[in-house]
Amino acid sequence: MTKDLTDARDALLQGRLRATDALTASLASADAPVNQHTYIRRFDTQALATTRAVDATFAAGAPLPRLAGLAVSVKALFDVQGHTTAAASRVLADAPAAVSDCPAVARLRAAGAALTGHTNMTEFAFSGVGINPHHGTPPNAATLAVDPQPRIPGGSTSGGAVSVASGAAWAALGSDTGGSIRIPAALQGLVGFKNTARLTPTAGAIPLSTTLDTACAITRSVRDAVLLHEVLAARQVSLVQRPLSALRLGVPARLLDGMDPTVATAFQRALNTLRRAGARIDDIQLPELDELASINATGGFSAAESWAWHRSLITQRQADYDPRVAQRIRRGETMSAADYITLQHARTDWITRMTTPLRRFDALLSPTVPIVAPTIASLASDEAFFAVNAMLLRNPAVVNMLDGCALSLPCQQPGEMPVGLMVWSHAMQDDTVLDVSLAIEAALTEGAH
Question: Which parts of the chain sit beneath pLDDT 70?
Fold first, then answer.
């Protein structure tokens, strides 16, 4: 069983697998019923051309590119040359095609990724649930084995996560503004790494919040997360590979509120496993977390900055928007310039005060989200939808506000509903977070056997 992209790449390098055959298998998975709503647009012909070129390169004895012709999906808010970038909306469906790849897509293509298509998403990336009324909602691909009822995929990178969980792609390019990579990764038993925002270019992507948006990826393993980050950020990660016994980790009590029994059990079991492996884990208070509600009381960056981008479009065509998305964008309409400037100053001050206690730890640990994926049917009412959305965003959004970095990795046992463990820190601690995550992943994998 080829478990991740790194495994598949090794098989290609050893001549045990051809890139074209690997892609054929990925495309067959993309054709399965679970993926009916995963892709808005497929790039099969282009992807096959990529794999044929990789196979020819291998046959010629030349070195393969880093992603070796393996399938990678692209969230529908990133520009791909020759295709319309509509962010899974109706209002942009007839927009002109992109004249060039955005930098993130160009870096994937240069690394030899077989780009398989534009994946479905929450319209304009404005929710952590993953429901889309225009293109259908891709069901959570990881929970079907545990429960046949269709459950939410998580958002906003919903189709991207389903593409990876279902085997249609080895990795998914997405974005994370308040958890849009980590939430679907957590709910589908995958790895989602949100790097420090400044490390990856977001040019050529439809913005939600220019302050908080991060371009990053969903993968099947932490080592794949390292590889995809190196490609997307055009930098080399430095891994110290310290043992767990050398690490000091903190668990903020305020991010444990509201855990359902499945999450509470999996999270506590993971902490126990890490402690047995020698990690020092301290419970901490972080009272600064209580300030976020008042800091964002006027709507926050996403409302202000999405309103600035959408205001003429939504004024003319609000009926074509997902009503739940339009409602959240319009929160920015009442924010004044003074409110926005106050918000910027408050964030800068909050980051400074948060960073001081965080420096005592190699990383912090939290549940990525406090609940397992609810059924799609249970979120029919706006009241239920917005309550779950707030719960899903609560923990991961802290890291975006902090301008930090975080990785969600699965911590459930086989046969259980997916649960994410979030490893996080302040800005530019990406390599430490990846290093710690590799050690945690190894310990949890060993503990599960």
Answer: 1, 449
Q: What is the pLDDT of residue 448?
A: 72
Amino acid at 277: A
Tokens at 25, concatenated: 């298998």
Distances (CA, A) of 253 to 60, 96, 292: 57, 49, 15
Task: Name beta bridge partners: 74.
Answer: 118, 173
56 Rama sector, left if φ>0, alpha if ψ -120 to 50, beta otherwise: alpha
Tokens in use for 37? 């709503």
Q: Give the integer Cα–Cα distance in Å for 243 and 139.
A: 38
DSSP helix/strand/coil, 407: strand
pLDDT at residue number 244: 97
3-state secondary structure 208-248: CCCCCCCEEEEECCHHHHHHHHHHHHCCCCCCCCCCHHHCE
Q: What is the pLDDT of residue 130?
A: 98
- At residue 449, the pLDDT reads 65
* The pLDDT of residue 43: 98
Distance CA 295, CA 348 (A): 11
Residues 6+ apart with CB under 8 A from 171: 5, 70, 72, 73, 113, 164, 217, 218, 219, 220, 224, 228
pLDDT digits over 93-120, tens only?
999 999 999 999 999 999 999 999 999 9
Query: For residue 227, what are its two tokens?
Result: 């590889």
| Long-range contact pairs involving 163-166 (C-beta distance under 8 Å, separation at least 24) | 163/30, 163/35, 163/38, 163/39, 163/73, 163/116, 163/119, 164/73, 164/188, 164/190, 164/218, 164/219, 164/220, 165/140, 165/141, 165/189, 165/190, 166/29, 166/30, 166/32, 166/34, 166/35, 166/38, 166/141
> Tell me, what DSSP letter sits at residue 178?
S
